[in-house]
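@channel sequence for tomorrow's demo:
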Amino acid sequence: MTHGTPAASEPAAGPSYSGTVVLELGPGAGALVLRTPAALDGREIEISRAGTAAPRTHAAVRPRHVAGGTQYAAVYPDLRPGSYVVWTEGSTPAATVIVTAGSVVVADWPGMVIE
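structure tokens (generated this afternoon):
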């Protein structure tokens, strides 16, 4: 038996084009761009601060149209500087990345080769 109203699904965002993602960077904020294989398009990938019980945050993998073609990536804006765990489904860590203040860190999904 369930109670309440069913959760509404979020509409799927379309691809982004060069210049359509705005990131605010500064002394207390950085960002992560996680490049992935096309097979992960639409998947929500979670990250969390390493070594803490902080809640996870997620972003959807989307096609990003850039000069020279299309790349697939999840973008995590406005992150506090520090180490973050990238999670596969469930409780399996896929990678650890270090976000620095005032910059965008670009990381690749484990085992992926960018051409």
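heads up for whoever presents: Residues 1-9 have pLDDT under 50 and may be disordered.
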